[in-house]
Predict the structure.
Amino acid sequence: MNKKKMIRLTALVGVATATVVVAEANQAHAATTTTTETTNQTTNASVESTQAAVDAAQSTFDTAQTSVDSAQANVTSASNNVTSASAALSSAIANKEAATSENIASATSAVSSQAVVVASASQAVSEQAGVVSAAASVQASAQAEATSASASLSSSSANVASATSALSAAEAALTSDQSTAANNLSAAESAASSASAAVSSGQAAVDNAQAAVASAQAIVDVQSSDVINMSVAYITALKNYLANPSSANAAALQEVAKGADYVKELQQKFKSDASLDVVVDPSDPTVQEVLSVYAVNLINHLRNQYGLTTAFGASANANVAAIDFVKKYYDDEDWNIFGTNGKGHNKNGLDAYANQLNTSIAEDAGSGLTTWVNGKATMATTTLHNLLYAVYSDIATMLFDDGGTNNWSHAQSIFEDGTILGTGGFNNVYLGVAFDKYGYAHYELYNATEGNHLGNNAYSLDVQTAAQALLTNAQASLASAKASLQRMTTNLMVAKAAVVAAQNQLAALENSSANDLVAVTKARTQLASAETSYQTALATYKQKEEALKKAGDNLAAAQASLEAAQATLATAKAKLAELEETVANLTNADQLLAAAQAAYEQAVANLTTATGNLGAAQVDLAKAESQLTLAEDTAEQAKVRAAIAAQVDQQLNGSTANDRQSAGQDATSLKTNGRALTATVATASAAKQKQGANQGRLPQTGNDDQEASTMALVGLGMLGMATGLYGYKKKKLTK
């Protein structure tokens, strides 16, 4: 239902209903025999009956709508059929125009030619099918032979496995005891070999321990006897130079130093002991301790001669720092301090390491292992003798051959107190000794503090006590090594006895297995025969498998050719069918055209019928819509009548006698006005109902919303007039 239409009709119904209800209420109170209850019952029954009419009209409308939808679908289908029939008719007309005797003869000839092509293709398919059949027969035969060869190969393989198992059993019977005895012998020989190696290792440990004892004893002797003594003239000249490094004092010091043949003095005073000729690692903690204590004692002896009371110290921490510094800033950086293109001291490295340790550092360097009076040594063949000699030689050289551009800086570093080479902060000097990878010796002078811990783990400078402790430890190690060697020697003797026992057991078993040996020989012969048969079967199997593969390939090729021939035949047949259809179409052109014309005319007739049915269904739908609109308007009018009747009755029943008398007078006055009002509303309502009935099938013009709004205002105005006539004490009716 159109919403605008409903608004307009409802407004009109409201006016008519108001007039009728006012008139009924007037009559009800004018006639004393009519009760308000009867009026209310009548209006309520009217509401129910009009709603039932609405429901029935809605059902009729829905049915009509379904009929329209079905008719529309039929029209669409009929239209599509007309389109198809029209296309078929056009094709039939074209076919009729082409159906000349020349075209029919040409098409018939083409059919005959194509029939020959089809016959030839069919013959080719038949022949290729024979080829496929023959290839399949060959492939089946090859498959049977390959299957037989495979079975023979499996049987031969089983025979080989059986013979192998029999040989293994015979050999196991033959070698069971012998194998055990042989294993025992092998184990005994292995144990004897390990024991012998252990004895050799133990002997080497004893030899090394004995060398260590000898070296420790030599260290005791060297530490107590090796000193460097300076002349009074040298000390005086050096003090003068350090106090005032003038050219005159430098010349005087050089003159005094030049007179000392320090090389010959070293040869005479350094104590050379064969017990010191043991190869050692310069980075070994024990060797480090010996070198640093040895160097510090040489330097402190010189400082005493010079008149200084403060002594240098030696510690494990200072040695570790020296080794770390030399590795990081000389070895890792390939820094050759002397060499052919010597770089000198790594000053940047010294600054960086000083900052790292937060202390003052000075460095002296010597030729170390690179130059000797007794020849050149290497890091790989360094002995304790070479290291001690290098330290002694370097310190002596710093005293007696340090002129030129160095300006006696090495001597200055040894004899200054609280300051080294002009740098302060050396109040507690600890010395660390390290050798770089080139063989040069580095003497690192650190100022030890509580913060850098360089003085921790200090070595005792009491030469005799330290050396004697070293000797005692070496002697204890020697005793332990000798005890271990004794145990290892005993173990070797036991192992050798076990080897002899195992050898005797194996010899006793060699002549007791004659029967087992015969069984082994027989089993080996059978295995050889089985393996020969297996190889023959394997060769046959491979041959048959190759033949089977070839037959399979031939069959596949024949089948492919057959499929190609079949495809050619199918194409030829399709072409023949197409040509035959063309001939049939041309030959029967008249009949085909007549049939197409009849089909087209029938389709047009069906479309006409469907279109008429659709129009009839649309008319029925318009009628149903008009009836539904009228029923809805009537129902709405009944609801308004019932509501107004109830409100008027409520006001009349609650008034006084004077009010009812006044109401009677008003009712009499209203009769004329009520009849006029009712006539006006009834005329308007009838006109609108007629207009609503025609809306379903006539075009709509004008503004429905504007018309509905205007009529609604008129209806509300009429309703206000009616209720105003029946108002008492300024009461208002409410919806």
Summary: The longest helix spans residues 101-225. Residues 318 and 432 are 5 Å apart (CA to CA). The chain is about 75% helix and 5% strand.
